[in-house]
Amino acid sequence: MTLSSEDKKALGNVRMQKAKEFLDDAKKNFDEGRYKTSVNRSYYAALSAARALLILEGANPETHDGVVTMLSLKFVKTGQLPHNSIKAFKTLLSLRTDVDYGDFDTIDKDEALEAYTKAVEFISTIEKLQKAIVL
After folding, report:
1. Pick from 102, 124, 126: which is nearest to 40 by CA?
2. Cα separation of 22 and 5, whole Å?
3. What's residue 2's pLDDT?
4. Structure-model confidence comparison of residues 68 and 133, the more confident one
5. Would the CA dihedral through 90, 60, 52, 100 be positive or negative?
6. Closest CA to 33 of 97, 107, 121
7. Which CATH superfamily groups domain 5-134?
8. Domain ranges of the chain
């Protein structure tokens, strides 16, 4: 996919908006005691934010692991994104995988809150970097 700079910015904005909607869903599910769904939405919020940032660099990975790899190469390795951000993203991915595919896995309120908090912090960091890049 070859996109112009303007198209990349527009797609990045759409993806960031999607991230915020997923984050709202995570909060609503948390408040309703649906902790597994909250973790799922927290992860997908972070994923959408990551994809919003990556598209600005012309990267559009097709897998979850591809997002981790591209974030690491394009932003962590260059010092633009702190290592703890990619660590938080990997934690969210692992939790999401557990709740989505683990038949007997449980998530309690504290774990769901931690996932939500990590997603909020990750998205905030990504959004600041996204804004700095498009200036």
Report:
1. 102
2. 26
3. 83
4. 68
5. negative
6. 107
7. Nucleotidyltransferases  domain 2 (1.20.120.330)
8. 5-134
* pLDDT score of 65: 96
* CB-CB contact of 116 with 95 (8 Å): no
Query: Do 134 and 16 contact (CB within 8 A), yes or no?
Result: no
Rounded-to-integer distance, Cα 34 and Cα 39, Å:
9
How does the average pLDDT of the chain come out, rounded?
96
What distances in angstroms separate CA 75 from CA 29, 55, 67, 106, one per listed residue?
31, 12, 11, 33
* Structure confidence by residue, pLDDT tens digits, 28-64: 999 999 999 999 999 999 999 999 999 999 999 999 9
Residue 71 CA to residue 17 CA, distance in Å, equals 19
